[in-house]
Amino acid sequence: MKTIVKMPIGLGICSSVMMFMTMTMVSLMSLILMTTTKEARLCEESIEVTKAYYKAEARANTKLLEIEEIYEIYSSAQSSREDVLEQVLKEIEGVTQVEIGEKFKIYYEVPIDKQQFIEVVATLPVQLDEPLSGVLQILSWKISSNE
Fold first, then answer.
1. pTM confidence score
2. Nearest in space to 44 (alpha carbons), one of 32, 36, 56
3. Contact between 97 and 36 (Cβ < 8 Å)
4. DSSP per-residue letters across 69-87
């Protein structure tokens, strides 16, 4: 007669536990891979936005220098305030508004991307015979949205 040996834990249970653990590990690894891919994409987008901002900031600073140069040229030529105003509006791209009060107030915008732009407000003295050193003042430098 044959004797049947019974095992306390069947092979089916061990196989099932092993399959469950394998499936769990594969699921967790796929979730980690998806999360890492999304974070890498977000990091790339952040890099592009930062690059665009600094390029726009450099253009905004260049416009400040151009405004100073126009002011310097016309102040040394003893031009009228209207001449300086006209040249600023003609030569500086993105100027949205110029006010003459106690000082010239120049508003201009520099696009960052399709949705955002840097909005700058700067002042210069109205009297063209005042010394130029340090007279350009930035009143406002902010990021605005088209929305």
1. 0.69
2. 36
3. no
4. HHHHHHHHTT--HHHHHHH
For residue 137 the two structure tokens come to 């003042």
Q: What percent of the chain has pLDDT over 90?
A: 39
Tokens of 143: 């990021």
Asked if residues 95 and 89 have their Cβ atoms less than 8 Å apart, the reply is yes
Q: Which of 120, 117, 116 is nearest to 92 (CA)?
A: 120
CA dihedral 57, 60, 64, 66 (to 10 degrees): 120
What stretches of the chain show up as alpha helix (H) in DSSP? 11-76, 81-91
Distance (Å, whole) CA 87 – CA 61: 18
Which tens digits make up the pLDDT trace of 77-124? 666 667 777 777 777 888 888 787 777 788 899 999 989 999 999 887
Question: Nearest 5 degrees, angle CA 80-CA 104-CA 74?
Answer: 35
Helix (H, G, I), strand (E, B) or coil at 96: strand
